[in-house]
């Protein structure tokens, strides 16, 4: 709704009819019914023409996709030549992955078994990607990275139990985020989420 508040016209899509209904209701309740269009759609095959948008935002989308490469190509396709893409990915190098043995197991050679066990319990699993893989997918999708960073350094846990109190955890998160924003080596890439802004490469019309 924040984009609509800035008087932008928004086309929002989701594969879940329930999410589409919820978004449509929120848009109507906030007076944005004429400015926000909501539809059920698959991000791998977007129902829009070439160079249709000035901005594409995909926050919390990539980790759940079966083919992020195809989705990024679609986002590039519907962007105008001077358009911008903002997307996020769950970071495989996040600091919290190294404080909990369970998370470390999920990145070991036994990770497939780990995910199979969790999936049997009906737990939805998102995918973690290292920033360099997302950079490569964006490049292969016909775009260039303009700006990138990682955000979020908590909660830190050990065997699913918080290491710090909520208040202390927030203080540590804020301190680590400030260091990451100053581009401190290594730390700058260990936030929970990888956030990237990209534009179409010059001369690219696909």
| % residues in beta strands | 15-25%
Q: Residue-averaged pLDDT, rounded?
A: 87
Q: How far do the termini sit from each other?
A: 29 Å
Q: What CATH architecture do you see?
A: 3-Layer(aba) Sandwich
Give me the number of helical elements: 7
Helix content: 25-40%
Unreliable residue stretches: none
Fold topology:
Blueprint: H1 2-5, E1 10-14, H2 17-29, E2 36-40, E3 53-58, H3 68-77, E4 79-90, H4 101-105, H5 111-120, H6 131-140, E5 143-151, E6 157-158, E7 161-162, H7 166-181, E8 193-200
Parallel strand pairs: 1-2, 3-4
Antiparallel strand pairs: 4-8, 5-8, 6-7
Summarize the structure.
The chain is an alpha/beta fold and 206 residues long.
Please describe what this structure looks like:
A hairpin with a 2-residue loop joins strand 6 and strand 7 (161-162). The relative contact order is 0.15. The strands form three sheets. Strands 3-4-8-5 form a four-stranded mixed β-sheet. It has a two-stranded parallel ribbon with strand order 1-2. Strands 6-7 form a two-stranded antiparallel ribbon. The chain has helices at 2-5, 17-29, 68-77, 101-105, 111-120, 131-140, 166-181; strands spanning 10-14, 36-40, 53-58, 79-90, 143-151, 157-158, 161-162, 193-200. The protein has a single domain, classed as Rossmann fold, CATH 3.40.50.150. The protein is 33% helix and 24% strand. The chain has seven helices and eight strands.
């Amino acid at each position: 709704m924040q984009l609509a508040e800035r008087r932008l016209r928004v086309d929002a899509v989701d594969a879940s009819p329930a999410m589409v209904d919820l978004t449509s209701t929120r848009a109507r309740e906030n007076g944005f019914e004429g400015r926000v269009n909501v539809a059920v759609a698959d991000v791998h095959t977007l129902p829009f023409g070439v160079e249709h948008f000035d901005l594409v935002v995909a926050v919390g989308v990539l980790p759940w996709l079966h083919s992020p490469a195809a989705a990024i190509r679609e986002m590039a396709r519907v962007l105008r030549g001077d358009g911008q893409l903002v997307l996020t990915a769950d970071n495989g190098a996040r600091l919290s992955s190294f404080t909990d043995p369970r998370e470390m197991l999920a990145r070991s050679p036994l990770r497939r078994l780990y995910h199979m066990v969790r999936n049997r319990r009906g737990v939805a699993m998102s995918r973690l990607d290292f920033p360099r893989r997302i950079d490569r997918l964006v490049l292969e999708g016909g775009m260039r990275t303009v700006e990138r960073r990682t955000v979020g350094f908590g909660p830190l846990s050990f065997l699913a139990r918080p290491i710090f109190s909520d208040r202390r955890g927030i203080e540590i998160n804020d301190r680590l985020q400030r260091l990451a924003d100053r581009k401190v080596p290594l730390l700058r890439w260990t936030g929970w989420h990888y956030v990237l802004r990209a534009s179409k490469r010059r001369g690219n019309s696909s």
